[in-house]
Write a structure and sequence with these properties.
mainly alpha; 23 helices; 2 strands; 61% helix; disordered C terminus
């Protein structure tokens, strides 16, 4: 690690050497290799089927093929990505490329698909390296502790919090998905915004949208920031040339992605695959959001009022489908859409008004988090894995202020814990607990040192947390015991949804609370609950960022 120290009290962060950074990246890669034989979900067969579809069929049939129930429902660029992977698949096992309604699995297929996730994670590694270099642009005051212990150098903290994210490890390398490459493209586009390379930011975010459309949830933050900062000057004079450049780049990416299907007259079919609103308000396992609270309230009212057993069972059958609430009004997609819009409009308005302030990049990062949070809490058919859209963009903000660090620690612990039910096999229990505990211990300790936190007001509370928040986090131990031990008792045979509902309900309490608390970036919180944008302008935010 190289350090450069200025005279006086100012100490400027220097980047890690490439050698040390890639050594850290390779260490986590070794962990991923060790996880190759872990349990994998139906997503493993989903992506294998997509390999076979793109390999065997012309593009005109990609979004019509339905031999398997796991039909292609990602945007075209991800389909091309699957086709690229299929070019290498036959070197491992040609049978995996056969279209089959019954699925296919073999040891060589497992090795190949696991290796593709590990290999494509190097996009994520590169993006994190960009952030380790970019974070120096945020003039953050930090502790001298890292001089004596390099594990607490700000760049090391940031790299560790990114690379060892337990949610990514659980979802990609056990459950099985490709969130690493997608998160890498997201982080790269965000880094380009901080670096004032707006056209590159627009390009990479357009690529991301055309690989997985769930990222449309955070597109308002990119749209408002790039439009205001790149297409208008400080006095709201329109820059037509800049707008034309931005529009050309974004439209070119979309034309390359959707153009062939538009020419084939398949846009209606493609859109039907991308946005299947008939899947219902909540996923088979409720993501811990506002609708988990709503569903739980409906369950309790249903039992109290002795609602019909049929309605009672439909919500927790484990199937992805529409269902009716027993007592409370049914929720339609338009209701969730309106709630999401209402939740993000204030922050987007604030970003537009303040985008030319010298802390505008901090505002942009926070608005990305706000958009992700609002869509997660109020969106339609939210997958529990969507918590990654919050925890990953929130990571660099943990270095900015104590309030952001507190929010990151709480959301990271609870959000990553909420992914545990995805890995329901007993063999993975110890793995997922150890990954979360080790990561959380380092996160709490490193951010405590980074923000030079003095002794806690409450002697027995975690760093950055008050006593009640500490008790809440410790309560996750009890929730895990309920989830693990409940199947041993008759109550779970009679009410099999109890463990999942308890986990989702408990986690949603804090995630919904923090979604509402993000609004304190615009309106001052109560004393002692972290700085606001207004208050922090002179004493905290301004020193964190360089203009231009």
């Amino acid at each position: 690690m190289k350090l450069r120290i200025k005279s006086g009290d100012d100490q400027i962060m220097s980047s890690m050497t490439d050698y040390k950074y890639w050594s850290l990246a390779l260490s986590i890669t070794c962990i991923k290799v060790l996880l190759m034989k872990s349990y994998h979900s139906t997503d493993f067969e989903v992506h294998r089927n997509w390999l076979s579809i793109t390999h065997n069929l012309p593009i005109s049939q990609w979004y019509y093929e339905s031999t398997s129930e796991w039909t292609l429902d990602y945007p075209p660029l991800f389909a091309w990505f699957e086709l690229l992977l299929a070019k290498f698949a036959h070197y491992f096992d040609e049978n995996m490329l056969q279209i089959s309604a019954n699925g296919y699995i073999s040891d060589k297929t497992i090795v190949f698909q696991r290796l593709t996730v590990i290999a494509t994670d190097f996009v994520y590694f590169y993006a994190v390296l960009q952030w380790c270099q970019t974070i120096a642009k945020l003039k953050i005051r930090f502790s001298k502790q890292f001089i004596y212990d390099q594990w607490f150098h700000p760049n090391v903290i940031l790299a560790m919090l990114f690379l060892w994210n337990p949610g990514l490890l659980l979802v990609d390398h056990i459950h099985f998905q490709y969130n690493g490459i997608l998160s890498g493209i997201l982080l790269l586009s965000m880094a380009r915004v901080i670096q004032k390379r707006e056209l590159e930011a627009a390009f990479w975010f357009a690529v991301l949208l055309n690989m997985k459309h769930i990222y449309v949830y955070i597109s308002p933050a990119f749209f408002v920031y790039l439009l205001r900062n790149y297409c208008f000057d400080r006095h709201l004079n329109f820059k037509a040339t800049n707008f034309a450049k931005l529009a050309l780049i974004v439209s070119s990416v979309f034309a390359a992605s959707f153009g062939p299907f538009l020419a084939l007259g398949q846009m209606r079919q493609l859109m039907a695959r991308l946005f299947p609103f008939k899947r219902g308000l909540s996923h088979a396992y409720w993501a811990p959001n506002f609708w988990a609270l709503y569903n739980s309230a409906d369950k309790v009212l249903g039992f109290s009022l002795k609602a019909s057993p049929g309605a009672n069972a439909s919500m927790t059958s484990g199937l992805v489908q529409q269902y009716d609430h027993q007592v409370l009004p049914n929720i339609t997609p338009i209701v969730t859409f309106v709630l999401v819009i209402v939740a993000i409009v204030p922050s987007m308005s604030f970003l537009w008004r303040r985008s030319h302030q010298n802390y505008s990049q901090i505002l942009f990062l926070r608005c990305v988090v706000m958009c992700a949070f609002s869509s997660y809490v109020f969106g339609w058919h939210v997958h529990e894995k969507a918590i990654l859209l919050i925890t990953i963009p929130l990571t660099p903000l943990a270095m900015v202020s104590k309030w952001d660090a507190k929010m990151f620690n709480m959301v990271s612990v609870v959000g990553n814990y909420s992914l545990f039910p995805l890995l329901f096999k007993e063999a993975e229990t110890l793995t997922k607990i150890l990954l979360l505990v080790i990561y959380s211990v380092y996160s709490f300790k490193s951010l405590e040192i980074h923000h030079k936190i003095s002794a806690n007001k409450f002697e027995n509370s975690f760093p950055l947390m008050n006593f009640l928040e500490t008790i809440y986090l410790l309560g996750l131990i009890g929730i895990q015991l309920i989830y693990s031990l409940c199947p041993l008792f008759n109550v779970c045979q009679r009410y099999p949804f109890v463990p999942l509902m308890t986990t989702s309900f408990y986690c949603s309490l804090v995630l919904v609370r923090f979604e509402l608390r993000t609004k304190t970036y615009e309106s001052p919180p109560k004393k002692g609950r972290g700085p606001t944008i207004e208050k922090a302008t002179n004493d905290e935010v301004q020193p964190m960022i360089q203009r231009g």
